[in-house]
């Protein structure tokens, strides 16, 4: 990556802001998925956040422990590229007690190596933003026919909480799947963090995860605002490093994500945060490259 690419990206920031304002005012005029009955409604936190049909995650009905779910989960496969150098994401709402089992079925079925959680369990107003689907420090936890075990827990200086989990079906004779769970609890709902350091630390951790291992699960509470913001940052950096200069057009990236999941990147502040995080990460990468050359 050259310094020239960095300068081009920085120069795009002012003009792209006006484009985003128009895009935001026209956002998400897409065809919503229609259901013939209401059997799934208890799984959908907000009706307007239903996954776009063609991109929604479909659970294997033959392995679905809860027949009433009929393979449905509020989750979407999102990406901008079929390149092996660019990660695919599963953007989803924060699991709730009645969807814990579906969530872990999805992780197993799609071989997801990492879960990025961008919310607290309960916010400062005592509102539940996500259920506790992952903490298992006191021994194995079971969700229907799934079992999770915590191997280790670490906390970073930037308030990231890392859990290495092992996940499997209870009766399976196969080796359990290792899943890295990264929680960033300090990202406020509908807002942005005070700086980009922790978000970029997540990205630096995931540089070491080959995109071909499986999609990265990303969720906040509803699974669109903070989730879309992180996916945009991660995707843009990966594509720039792979030489894809179309990644410089952030509005196009967000538009593509919104065509796959309604509402990805909710606010102008989140859009500006994408730019800030990407620019600062590019500065870091250029600095590292120059240091290695000297």
From TrEMBL:
**So which domain of life are we looking at?**
Eukaryota
Q: Which Pfam families does this entry report, sorted A to Z? A: Y_phosphatase (PF00102)
Question: What range(s) does the Tyrosine-protein phosphatase domain occupy?
Answer: 49-281
CDD domains in alphabetical order: PTPc_plant_PTP1 (cd17658)
Which InterPro entries does UniProt cross-reference here?
Answer: Prot-tyrosine_phosphatase-like (IPR029021), Protein-Tyr_Phosphatase (IPR050348), PTP_cat (IPR000242), Tyr_Pase_AS (IPR016130), Tyr_Pase_cat (IPR003595), Tyr_Pase_dom (IPR000387)
Q: Which residues form the signal peptide?
A: none
Under what name is this protein listed?
A: Protein-tyrosine-phosphatase
Transmembrane feature ranges: none
* Domain Tyrosine specific protein phosphatases, residue spans: 200-272
Q: Offer an example of a GO molecular function term for this protein.
A: protein tyrosine phosphatase activity
């Amino acid at each position: 990556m050259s310094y020239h690419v960095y300068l081009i990206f920085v120069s795009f920031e002012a003009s792209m802001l006006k484009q985003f304002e128009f895009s935001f005012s026209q956002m998400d005029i897409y065809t919503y998925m229609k259901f013939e009955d209401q059997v799934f409604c208890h799984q959908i936190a907000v009706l307007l956040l239903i996954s776009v049909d063609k991109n929604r995650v479909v659970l294997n009905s033959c392995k679905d422990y809860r027949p009433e779910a009929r393979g449905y989960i509020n989750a979407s496969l999102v990406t901008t590229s079929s390149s092996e150098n660019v990660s695919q994401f599963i953007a989803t709402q924060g699991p709730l007690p009645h969807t814990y089992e579906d969530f872990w079925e999805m992780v197993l079925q799609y071989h997801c190596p990492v879960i990025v959680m961008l919310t607290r369990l309960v916010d400062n107003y005592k509102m539940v933003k996500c259920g506790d689907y992952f903490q298992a420090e006191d021994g194995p936890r079971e969700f229907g026919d799934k079992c999770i075990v915590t191997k280790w827990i670490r906390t970073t200086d930037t308030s990231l909480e890392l859990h290495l989990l092992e996940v499997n079906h209870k009766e399976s004779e196969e080796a359990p799947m290792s899943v890295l769970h990264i929680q960033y609890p300090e990202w406020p709902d509908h807002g942005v963090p005070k700086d980009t350091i922790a978000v970029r630390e997540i990205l630096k951790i995931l540089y070491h995860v080959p995109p071909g291992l499986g999609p990265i699960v990303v969720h906040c509470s509803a699974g669109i605002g903070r989730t879309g913001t992180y996916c945009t940052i991660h995707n843009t950096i990966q594509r720039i490093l792979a030489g894809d200069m179309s990644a410089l057009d952030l509005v196009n990236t967000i538009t593509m994500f919104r065509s796959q999941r309604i509402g990805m990147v909710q606010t102008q502040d989140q859009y500006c945060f994408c730019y800030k995080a990407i620019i600062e990460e590019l500065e870091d990468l250029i600095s590292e490259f120059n240091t290695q050359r000297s």
